[in-house]
Write a structure and sequence with these properties.
The chain has 369 residues and is of the alpha/beta class. It has 2 domains: 18-255, Aspartate Aminotransferase, domain 2 (3-Layer(aba) Sandwich), CATH 3.40.640.10; 258-364, Aspartate Aminotransferase, domain 1 (Alpha-Beta Complex). It is 44% helix and 16% strand. It contains 14 helices and 13 strands. It has helices spanning 18-26, 38-51, 62-73, 88-92, 96-99, 118-124, 156-168, 180-187, 191-194, 221-233, 242-255, 259-274, 302-310, 334-368, and strands spanning 6-7, 55-59, 79-84, 104-108, 136-143, 172-177, 200-204, 215-219, 279-280, 290-295, 314-315, 317-319, 323-327. Strands 2-8-7-6-5-3-4 form a 7-stranded mixed sheet, sandwiched between helices. Strands 9-10-13-12 form a 4-stranded antiparallel sheet. Strands 1-11 form a two-stranded parallel sheet. A hairpin with a 3-residue loop joins strand 12 (317-319) and strand 13 (323-327). Helix 1 (18-26) runs antiparallel to helix 11 and helix 2 packs parallel to helix 11 (242-255).
């Protein structure tokens, strides 16, 4: 039994590295609400440069980053944003764009590869002739990588096409880039090129690249000015925020280059799972750091499997009634991957054996009766 916990529930579970902790302790800070925190200013300027945009703004969470971005673009209540039906904004962010911004979601089906069909996006754009009856379409949102579709990458060609649709119809394009660096690493495309067509991007810091907290919004100077006001409105302003930005600086510097290795380990996991007959795994679908596998044996449920794995210090996430998700991050070693596969094999055996014993005892009790 390993003494350490192999935590594969999410790439958000990473602990700050020693370098991050040292940077936080040594950070040069002032009051960021007054606009004078030097570490925050430096980090935001660097993130704007990396992403190829004019300006950037640190915010406490990805949910707030997306919410602010949507509300800046849809600044009139009754606006409409086109979203994928499996997108994080639509599924996991508590309907904030509607609750707080009066923005109506216009849902388009995500394909298994994370895209939305271009013709369906065009069809979802409201005609100006129907403004008496319909909300006004102002925004298209993409997600890269697309988490609910298995961490799929949206290509630069596809993103550019959606950007052209947005421009043609006078709309804005926002990219939820919670794992945008993963997409860049997997596609071999510089991150600034990957988001060139976007008017705004929310860049996750606390997922794949392992910072302890936060996201960055990037866009034009005018966009970030409005975003700064909304951040204050939503309670997202932090005084000496440079302490957090210092850790994020280290994450960007030290961890982005490790993402390709995370993807390699995810493929090793998927390959090992493929060899276990009680599961089905689509190896081709594992493009980045997320691995989804389905139960092919009715005796094994995702919840039960995760429960038995936890007893072996391996943590995983059950997804619905038939799937489990594993998320690889830079604090997962090759040894952890092999240990996880060994524990999953043992857990399957334990569940099946226990089920057989229970069936035997039940049948015996019935016979005696």
């Amino acid at each position: 039994m390993a003494t350490k916990v192999v935590d594969l529930r999410s790439d958000t579970v990473t602990k700050p590295s020693e370098a991050m902790r040292a940077a936080m302790a040594a950070a040069d800070v002032e009051d960021d609400i007054l606009g004078s925190d030097p570490t925050a200013r430096r980090f935001e300027a660097e993130m704007a440069r990396i992403m190829g945009k004019e300006a950037a703004l640190f915010v406490p969470s990805g949910t707030m980053a997306n919410l602010i971005s949507v509300l800046v673009h849809c600044d009139t209540r009754g606006s409409e944003a086109i979203l994928g039906d499996n997108s994080h904004i639509h599924v996991y962010e508590h309907g904030g764009i509607s609750t707080l911004g009066g923005v109506h979601p216009r849902i388009v089906a995500n394909n298994p590869d994370g895209t939305m069909d271009i013709d369906k996006i065009v069809a979802a754009i409201r005609s100006r002739d129907g403004s008496l009856y319909y909300p006004t379409t102002r925004l298209i949102c993409l997600e890269n990588t697309q988490g609910n579709c298995g961490g799929k990458c949206l290509s630069v060609e596809y993103t550019d096409k959606v950007g052209e649709v947005a421009k043609t119809h006078g709309l804005k394009l926002h990219i939820d880039g919670a794992r945008i660096f993963n997409a860049s690493a997997a596609l071999g495309v510089p991150v600034d090129r990957l988001v060139r067509a976007a008017d705004s991007v929310s860049v996750g810091l606390a997922k794949g690249i392992g910072a302890p907290i936060g996201s960055v919004i990037v866009g034009s100077k005018a966009f970030i000015h409005k975003a700064t006001i909304l951040r204050k409105t939503l309670g997202g302003g932090i005084r000496q925020v440079g302490i957090l930005c210092a850790a994020a600086e280290v994450a960007v510097r030290d961890t982005v280059g490790k993402l390709a290795d995370d993807h390699r380990k995810a493929k090793v996991l998927a390959d090992g799972l493929k060899k276990i007959e009680q599961f089905t795994v689509d190896l081709a679908s594992v493009e980045t750091n997320l691995v989804f596998f389905d139960m092919a044996d009715a005796r094994i449920s995702p919840a039960k499997l995760c429960q038995v794995l936890e007893q072996r210090n391996v943590l995983a996430t059950p997804i619905g009634s038939k799937s489990v998700r594993l998320a690889v991050h830079y604090q997962i070693s090759d040894g952890d991957v092999q240990y996880t596969l060994k524990c999953i094999e043992e857990a399957v055996e334990e569940i099946i054996t226990g089920d057989a014993k229970l069936e035997h005892l039940t049948n015996g009790a019935t016979t005696n009766s």
